[in-house]
Amino acid sequence: MTSPPPDSLTDVPGLSVGHFTDLDAATGCTVVLFPAGAVMGVDVRGAAPGTRETDLLRPGMLVQRVQALLLAGGSAFGLAAATGVVRFLEERGVGYLTVAGVVPIVPAAVLYDLALGRADIRPGEQAGYAACLAASTKPVIQGSVGAGTGATVGKILGMAHATKAGLGSAAVHLPEGVVVGALAAVNAGGSVVDPASGRVLAGVRAPDGSGFLDAEALVLAGQGVRALRGTNTTLVLVATDAALDKTLANRLAQVAHDGLARALRPVHTQFDGDVVFAASTAADGAAPFDVNRVAVAAVQAVERAIVRAAQMATSLAGLPAASDLASGGSSGGPEGR
After folding, report:
1. 99 belongs to a structural domain
2. Band of the pLDDT at 64, cuts 50, 70, 90?
3. Which sign, positive or negative, has the C-alpha torsion 157, 161, 166, 170?
4. Residue 4 located in a structural domain
5. Range(s) of the domain holding residue 74
6. What's residue 46's pLDDT?
7. pLDDT in tens, 238-257
8. What is the DSSP letter of 236?
């Protein structure tokens, strides 16, 4: 866990972020709370997603605003953490109003981190509730924390050659004061690369310890495809205070996937569950803003959030992070799984 940089998702007004982190089990969850609600869209590109309440985010559905978003480890088991978020919001009277009271709307998505740490301990209701209690508008704490606690990259040749990744965040400020932020829990089978140079920042570690291998070349050569199965997912939230309706929020989620394609190689495979959510915290009736500018800013924020997730991660459960390797740290395989 590393001190946050000066720009993060919480630069966007109208939201707060909280983590629950279990370093012993190498798992956790992250919640984003929207006190006044948020218009949200989603785009699922990975072929193996684990999600909750995403149907509600399509245009034409009744509910127009959500009250929170949960990102969690634990694979499908981790969706249980959303129950704790729902309980937290109900206790505070926050949710979609019905004749019988409020019903909090909490979309969620999970990543697979069961191969690191303890597979029998996953984020549950109490973890989701604890993340809500920890929610803050301060800059997001990044690295091996929250939904990124057990996240890893470079698993094409198996966990013995993987690298620890985590959770990252970034924000772009437009001249008019509009803010576009991103949060990414990076758990990819491929590598995190520098979008400008293409240099691998974290990925498949060479067996001889000489550095990182070309993950795309490995896939093209037919190596390691079985190792990818069911172990990968990058989860992203893009948020802005620019006014968006559901149609534009879904469009923003689609375009924001370009940030994944620039910073992860390969991405969107049959064994990934990559999901991007996009949210607007603007009040109803707010003046419209050029969505093209928001989209360009979103892609840049996603790129930086993914890079930071790799750069700010720390070793865990015997698996080294890129920062450890750069400083001559251990390159041994994971232990305790």
Report:
1. yes
2. very high
3. negative
4. no
5. 9-326
6. 77
7. 999 999 999 999 999 999 99
8. E
Which residue shows structure tokens 């983590």?
A: 19
3-state secondary structure of 91: helix
Quote the Cα angle for 291-104-260, to 5°. Answer: 40
Q: Write the CB contacts of 157 (distance below 8 Å, at least 6 apart in sequence).
A: 204, 213, 218, 223, 224, 227
Whether 45 is covered by a domain: the verdict is yes
Looking at residue 223, its amino acid is Q
What CA–CA distance (Å, rounded) separates 106 from 235?
Answer: 15
Which of 80-89, 246-255, 260-269 shows the lowest per-residue confidence on average (mean pLDDT)? 260-269
C-alpha to C-alpha distance for 71 and 46, rounded to whole angstroms: 16
DSSP H stretches of helix in 137-290: 215-220, 225-228, 246-263
Give the E-state strand segments of the chain in sequence order: 16-22, 27-44, 51-52, 66-72, 96-98, 101-103, 108-110, 152-153, 163-164, 167-173, 179-187, 191-193, 200-202, 233-240, 264-265, 275-280
Give the tens place of pLDDT for each residue, 316-326.
Answer: 999 999 998 86
Residue 224 CA to residue 330 CA, distance in Å, equals: 23
What one-letter code names the amino acid at 334?
P
Tell me if the pTM is above 0.85.
yes
What is the spatial distance between Cα 212 and Cα 204, in angstroms, rounded to a whole number? Answer: 5
CA 24/CA 28 separation, integer angstroms? 10
Please indicate, yes or no, if residue 294 is contained in any of the structural domains. yes
